[in-house]
Amino acid sequence: MNISQRMQDAFNKQIVAELWSSNIYLQMAFWFRKEGWKGFASWMYKQAEEEKQHAMDMSNFVLMRGGEVKLTAIDAVKTNWKDAKEIFIDTLAHEQNVTEMINVLADVADEEKDRASQNFIDKYIDEQVEEERNVQDILDSFEHQSNHAVAHIDKELSKRQ
Ligand SMILES: [Fe+2]
Ligand SMILES: [Fe+2]
């Protein structure tokens, strides 16, 4: 095995967290579908797929290095929300939490002096910057839409060459 037990355990924990992420976004997609919001639902289905992909990618990395992947129970997710905006507020908080977890994973890789893992985790550090930005942009849109007139002026100003 080319990966330390501690590093392997940290990855296993993150893999389960990514699957939990996939479930929460899938549940959000179902909620949107039920409420008739097809666009939001489709965005959330894609988000759920992406999180599952993260779990697969991390599992593949651990297995490639001769480690073992063991799935544990995945906690139940929240199933009801007040409105679309509340879902995105939850999404941002969740992604900020994931960023913290990825940082902890990177700390373990540093402490274990595991260069391959450090290199692998780097792309997830970049990914989290993007994830947080995307969700923040959506939340900003909610704010702007509730102020039509100013949003219109903003759009006009964006045309300046
Ligand atoms: Fe993820
Ligand atoms: Fe994510």
Automatic annotation (TrEMBL):
Q: Which InterPro entries match?
A: Ferritin, Ferritin-like, Ferritin-like_diiron, Ferritin-like_SF, Ferritin_DPS_dom, Ferritin_prok
The principal location of this protein is cytoplasm
Q: Which Gene3D superfamilies match?
A: 1.20.1260.10
One annotated GO molecular function is: ferrous iron binding
Checking Pfam families in the record gives: Ferritin
Q: Which reaction does it catalyse?
A: 4 Fe(2+) + O2 + 6 H2O = 4 iron(III) oxide-hydroxide + 12 H(+)
- Protein's cellular compartments: Cytoplasm
* CDD domains attached to this UniProt entry: Nonheme_Ferritin
Q: What class of enzyme is it?
A: oxidoreductase
Q: So what EC number does this one have?
A: 1.16.3.2
UniProt GO cellular component terms? cytosol
Q: Where does Fe cation bind?
A: 18, 51, 54, 95, 128
Q: Which PANTHER family match?
A: BACTERIAL NON-HEME FERRITIN (PTHR11431:SF127), FERRITIN (PTHR11431)
Function (record text): May alleviate iron toxicity in the presence of oxygen. Iron-storage protein.
Protein name as catalogued = Ferritin
Organism field: Prevotella histicola F0411
